[in-house]
Design goal:
- 2 copies of one chain form a homodimer.
- Chain A contains 20 helices and 19 strands.
- The first copy, chain A, is 42% helix and 18% strand.
- The longest helix of chain A has 21 residues.
- Chain A is an alpha/beta fold and 563 residues long.
- Chain A starts with a helix and ends in a 9-residue tail after the last strand.
- Chain A has a 7-stranded mixed sheet, with helices on both faces.
- Chains A and B meet through helix 1, strand 3, strand 4, helix 19 and strand 18 of A and helix 1, strand 3, strand 4, helix 19 and strand 18 of B.
Chain lengths: 563, 563
């Protein structure tokens, strides 16, 4: 059965292997929610499946359930009232451990084949997942579909491809023959078993519950580990659907479905989590969330392999441009997309205080700021269209952050409240842009997650790049963007990005935005600065999730004791 | 120049790549110290080079030298009196950081090519290194030559091969073209830079200063890091010679020799080390040594990637044999080789208290013990031959351990003092074997590093295997050995080794011994139990020593801003 799935997906796997070694554009899954790609009834069926989960109990069928949890709130104001099983932790982890032994024995082809089958089934449920992502994260539908569905599935496939790329190079057996001068050679038969670490814990976030969790989930599964999926209390549904699909495939393949389990919790689960992550039986932790929680795990969970993505300060350096309007349009989109609630969204925009050269002559710092303000206002001018870009605000902390930013004064552009034409109770806010001086480091060197950005006046572009590099290295960053028509500045920016170990985007003016990270091509985070200790996805992300245990014996004894 | 070295060694590299994927027998370097392999004058030249270092100052030519260190003592009684530069740590690390930038820029082919050239030069100095290993570790000459020379060089080459196997799969550039329905596609040019972590610190041990340090040293170098080599105060010379050779090759290749530096210290450097390993600029640590020091580093050096090999409790399970004499001969060799001062040497031998079946009928527990005693006494019967097997005792702690073991009573075989025919002051001890009951766990579950082993009476082989597995998982182990003529017992032993994540040797009766770990074929440590958090060598050992930093821009702007 498992080998059936491996054979079924082998050509996909070889395409994916080629993609991770060339890292050009490749995607297995169609990002357009079109009937042509997903079938005439997919959209309706998916929405119906989502609606069927509302105001009801989400059955997982896993052991150790003791009552219910579930306090998700839709940022669009839709009433969810979904209940999930409250797991007895001991029972759940015992079940996971019990499932481990057969799963461990199944071997790499089974792990990879079943992982790929699960991903395919997830793709078929992309519409249901899209609605669940939309109404937990506040993403507009199109983004919820793309980032929560096909793009997340591509990231999952990418992780499986990296895992297989390591696993396939480990020989199952070896014949060892060592010459002994004139005597007969020493000969041995050796076997190499890939052995998983054990229980992997995947801790999701509230903004990209699937996109950020799938790489760890599937890297664990594809290397033979069992996985406990622990969603953020505010975004349980997308991962609950994921776990249910995974369990169904595992059962069909003849395995214990407890290889993948759900650990749903209610808000205020901090103490519970602090006890969970240091358990000796938790061998791998994939975490996406706040710097404080991520740092706590890195500091205390010494028994586990830890992969974290935390917060950072993303930056744009503007040195010189051909046409500020075109540059501003691109940046405005990045600031507005999902109201800046992306870990890749830019926050600090460094501009020399004496302005920048353009093809039409020099423009002042304030003219650069005004251009950015105008671009955002133009982009979001029509509320009906704007909400499809901004989506809604995920949580009240972000609203409070907007208030704090407003209190700073120096506003270039204030955040506005928009009314969503379809969801009157949706909490929609447009970007706030403030003007700061480089001396205001205490403000702009912290992460202001949400629709808050700062245009910071620096002494020079050289100054801007040094600041950007230092900030990436010390505070962490997932993205750095530079605008310059001067090759020497670009070269300096490249050095700055290497020193800060942060991905660099150069002169983005077209249809690509700094927030975007494409599976199979863009490495998401370098793992080399405080924003993340791992990269999505590279060999280091998978290679330590398993070990190799060997055995050897003299060939002569093979007849006597077959192994 | 660097590419010259890469081209020069490319065929060796491809053979090594094939070897790590097949893991049969392969060795680049001849393990026999023969004129045919190393040249007529090699032996004499090497000994002369070694003798020239005695009673003198070992010049490295690195910055920041403040006086001298050096208190090495030859276990064979030879007077060494070698002095080494005492480094000013700040100056040394500043020099290493200064060397990093050009080295980082040189790129994978330069890193790998120069690493391979250094390894080749080390091989040419195998005789000098052999004498230096012999007179610091106490290894007999043949072992010092093989383990300290060619075998260590093979392990170095293996690490470089694993590094290159990862590096070669990272594309330098990518062309990204994303279809846009009917519109013209989005196109981008992407560049991927391999970026080293920074300063790697390699901490050597006093028994295998080259064999255990080369993998980390060359894994660092081959991935673009700079390396500070910190030998054990009792075994500085082998690594000092290594560093001097590395610096010479680096200079010839046109690089700053401070890419590799020596940090020699005197005994009692504990406080100094505790400050060193937590420095923010130390990004990678490779450690071989005691569990207490290794655990301290794992606990405190949160800023670094850490690869440790610590202590463990290696075990042999005897269930049933064809001929106990043949089995005993193999085990006796493992107990006697380098007086049990190998991290892979067996310590606990589990035998059912009611004896074991053989081809000639059942023999009692005491008969098994007597057989092992007789085998050791026969093997070491001729002192002149014995010392070439046992070598000398590296440090006084091991002598004290022999005393403590003797005080336990229950001796099957007492440790004897042997006089070395060539080195009258050599400290030579034969193995001590004591008989214990499984209830004496407080004794045999600790590591007794040195020529001390225990024959432990268990309730049954099933009991023995459960104990062995549990002990490997909880105390750590590098080796597990089983003797049985029963396939079901072998299968149980395989499960036990997988549960304990320890390498298993089955029915070793010929010319292979459980202590031996062959480069390119045997994984040394699994990294899955407390004896070590890493394996020599696998992808996980190299994949996190570097990061990838990417940059991207629209193709359209290529003409405008060439990158």
């Amino acid at each position: 059965m498992s080998h059936t799935f491996f054979a079924k997906h082998e050509s996909t796997l070889s395409k994916a292997l080629n993609a991770i070694q060339t890292r050009g554009y490749w995607s297995l899954f169609n990002e357009m929610p079109s009937p042509r790609a997903y079938g005439e009834t997919a959209a309706g069926d998916g929405e119906a499946a989502f609606k069927a989960t509302l105001n009801s109990y989400f059955e997982i069928g896993q052991p150790g359930t003791e009552g219910e949890v579930g306090k998700e709130v839709s940022p669009f104001g839709l009433q969810l009232s979904i209940k999930y099983p409250r797991a007895n932790l001991e029972t759940l982890l015992d079940a996971a451990s019990a499932a481990l032994k057969d799963w461990r024995r199944a071997g790499p082809q089974a792990w990879v084949g079943i992982s790929l089958e699960i991903i395919e089934r997830l793709n078929a449920s992309s519409f249901e997942i899209a609605h669940s992502v939309m109404h937990t994260t506040g993403q507009a539908f199109m983004m919820a579909f793309q980032a929560g569905g096909p793009h997340a599935q591509d990231r999952a496939l990418e992780a499986v491809a990296y895992a297989w790329n390591q696993l396939k190079d480990i020989p199952a057996t070896a014949y060892w023959e060592k010459p002994q001068g004139n005597g007969s050679p020493l000969t041995m038969e050796k076997h190499f078993s890939v052995v998983p670490r054990g229980i992997g814990l995947v801790i999701g976030c509230c903004t990209f519950p699937t996109w950020n969790s799938y790489p760890g989930l599937f890297a664990d599964l594809a290397t033979g580990n069992v996985v406990v999926v622990k969603p953020h209390p505010a975004a349980i549904l997308p991962l609950a659907i994921t776990v249910r699909i995974a369990r169904k495939v595992l059962s069909e393949a003849g395995f214990d479905p407890n290889i993948v389990t759900l650990l749903a919790t209610d808000p205020g689960d901090g103490d519970f989590m602090q006890k969970l992550v240091v358990r000796p039986d938790v061998k791998i932790i994939d975490f996406t969330g706040s710097t404080s929680n991520g740092a706590w795990i890195e500091e205390h969970a010494r028994q586990a392999q830890i992969y974290t993505e935390k917060a950072g300060v993303n930056q744009i350096v503007i040195d010189s441009v051909e046409d500020m309007k075109i540059v501003a349009r691109n940046i405005a989109f990045s600031l507005s997309l999902y109201s800046g609630q992306m870990c890749t969204a830019p926050q600090n925009i460094y501009v020399p205080r004496d302005g920048i050269p353009t093809a039409n002559g020099r423009i002042s710092f304030d003219e650069v700021a005004a251009s950015l303000r105008d671009a955002v206002e133009t982009l979001l001018g029509d509320p009906a269209k704007a909400v499809e870009l901004t989506g809604a605000i995920q949580n009240v902390g972000i609203l409070e952050r907007i208030e704090s930013a407003r209190a700073l004064g120096k506003l270039v552009l204030d955040s506005k409240v928009l009314t969503h034409p379809l969801f009157p109770d949706a909490v929609v806010r447009t970007p706030l842009i403030a003007k700061l001086d480089v001396s205001d480091a205490a403000t702009y060197l912290n992460e202001w997650f949400g629709p808050v950005s700062f245009i910071v006046a620096t002494d020079s572009t050289h100054h801007s790049l040094a600041l950007a590099s230092r900030t990436a290295a010390s505070k962490g960053a997932l993205t750095l963007s530079v605008y310059s028509t001067d090759k020497s500045v670009i070269d300096e920016a490249i050095e700055a990005s290497i020193d800060g170990q942060v991905a660099l985007s150069i002169n983005l003016t077209g249809g690509v935005f700094v927030n975007q990270s494409a599976a199979f091509s863009d490495f998401h985070a370098t793992g080399g600065n405080p924003a993340a200790n791992a990269s999505l996805t590279d060999p280091a992300f998978v290679a330590n999730r398993f070990r190799v245990v060997q055995r050897r014996q003299h060939i002569a004894q093979r007849a006597q004791v077959p192994v």
